[in-house]
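Appendix B, Record 12. Input sequence as logged:
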Amino acid sequence: MKNTIQDLLRRCTFPDRPVVCAVSGGPDSIALLALACSAGLDTTAIHVDHGIREGSYKEAEVVASAAERFGARFQSLKVQVEKGSNLEERARQARYGVLPEDVLTGHTADDQAETILLALLRGSAWHGLSGMEPSAQRPILQLRRAETVDLCVSLDISIVSDPSNNDPHFRRNRIRHEVLPLLNDIADRDLVPILSRQAELLRSGAQYISSQAEKIDPTDSQALIGAPTILSREAIRNWIWKTRKDDHPPDLATIDRVLDVAYLRAVATEIGNGWRVARTDRILRIEKPEAI
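Logged structural output:
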């Protein structure tokens, strides 16, 4: 093995408390489980069966076996996800809907790089390009996918091979198997560490912008007009996102339409899914869809 478990643990950020690990049975989550137990933590492994693939119950058996080997408790949960469009996102939402809020996940530095590139394709700004926030809930975010695979091989432990990870219909898979290898070839170096460092810089900038934007009342058109545009946009972004409780914040085009309302260039504007921002005199408000 290229790195010992202790070498890997030095780069992990496990919390000092009992932990629950989301374990699909793939190398990243199995490595998460092995490392949590090696750190001496009181660990529970939870496997969520989406019922999407035939025989998926066997994956739970792999996780149960790993949990027993490492001395962790095991729990199996089932959710129902119907096949159809946006399957990956709906499965993710269903999974997190049954997992504890403080669950630990096996995201790696490679996942971080893919997330950043996906955000770039969506046209995300500071926050999206900052990637996933490093935290105790993502304790192996500094490890590489190759290292988690190597750990599982060295421990001679069974892992689940999810065929959907190679399905080109999922955009993340094309980033993983096509885009990143091509970019590495063009740059003649491994871009994952570089993208991770860029995310840290952007995250720092995003945090500063957010702290300054909190001083602005997004319902006050005069306050929005008087502030630098970058701060006005951030204030509007956070206002809409917190009010609607969406998975993703509004895009730039939506935010700029709201700015048009603040600048008295429009009386109201749609902000998606029946929601709208309207203005009376110089005060803005968010209006819910009638059905809500």
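The longest strand covers residues 43-49.
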